[in-house]
Design goal:
Blueprint (H helix, E strand, L loop, with lengths): L2 H4 L9 H6 L9 H4 L8 E4 L5 H10 L4 E5 L2 H8 L8 E5 L12 E7 L8 H11 E13 L4 E3 L3 H16 L10 H7 L3 E11 L2 H12 L4 H5 L5 H4 L2 H16 L4 E13 L2
Parallel strand pairs: 1-2, 1-4, 2-3, 4-5
Antiparallel strand pairs: 5-8, 6-8, 7-8
Helix pairs in contact: 9-12
Bound molecules: S-adenosylmethionine.
Amino acid sequence: MSDRKSKETYTHGYKSAVRNQQRRTAEDQGAFFIRHLRPGMKILDCGCGPGTITVGLADVVDPGQVVGIDTGQEAIDLANKLIGERKNLKFQTGSVYELPFPDNHFDGVLIHKVLEHVAEPETAMMEVARVLKPGGVVGARSTDQGALNIVPWSEAINDIFDNLQDRWEKNGGNPFFGRLQQSVMRKSGLERLETSHRVETANPDEWRRAFENIWNGDYEEWLSRGFLTEDQVSDPAQMTKVKSDLKAFAADPDCSFVTSVDYETTGWKP
Ligand SMILES: C[S@@+](CC[C@H](N)C(=O)[O-])C[C@H]1O[C@@H](n2cnc3c(N)ncnc32)[C@H](O)[C@@H]1O
């Protein structure tokens, strides 16, 4: 196992970040992929997280079977609660590096916001291509944080993203993976590659509410998400500066920030 792979840890964790993931749907985040799906297809959702996209895939291909896999037992426990009456959907733990399926098994594989968290995206994509039938489609969507745009400029907000990106890289991932996605898919033998882009923006009101924890001195969630560092919170002078910076940002009625560009790539196995 490579050094980077052995350090691999999922940066966002399974607590507060999962709340954002639970808003995701196949119709919205998966639109670039589901337009290639038909009823009866057998689909894998790799790194399915809490499963909100996966259930949408199951409804689109019904009666075709859909499997969601994820390394996180906590994510799979949440996903299992969504199955309801569906007979064509199951979730299981497993890694994209060693998919527990035979060669040429699926008509389609979605890998949504996962490749930027793995240390060896090329190995992961080769494994995805292995389980795909000839003629099958892969949809990959990965973030690229290189498009961060903060209005008005705020050092504290910029530091939050620097901290996050630093933690992300230490955990073996690449917060700038999006731009590499198409070439990784090409190298794994996929063809007819097409990439589209979507901008992710932060909701200023949600962030204003989240800042309240900082103003109240409750740093736990911010530390656990990698937005603040232990060095910062143990230094009162630094925290005074962070708080006043965030207050100034939040007080601007026109404050906004673009967090990332998502790269959406589709490709087919020859
Ligand atoms: C940002 S979440 C995306 C979840 C879901 N696809 C979505 O968009 O809502 C990334 C997920 O990838 C999973 N993950 C990380 N490394 C993985 C691996 N090697 N194999 C399978 N899943 C992995 C994490 O556990 C996490 O649930």
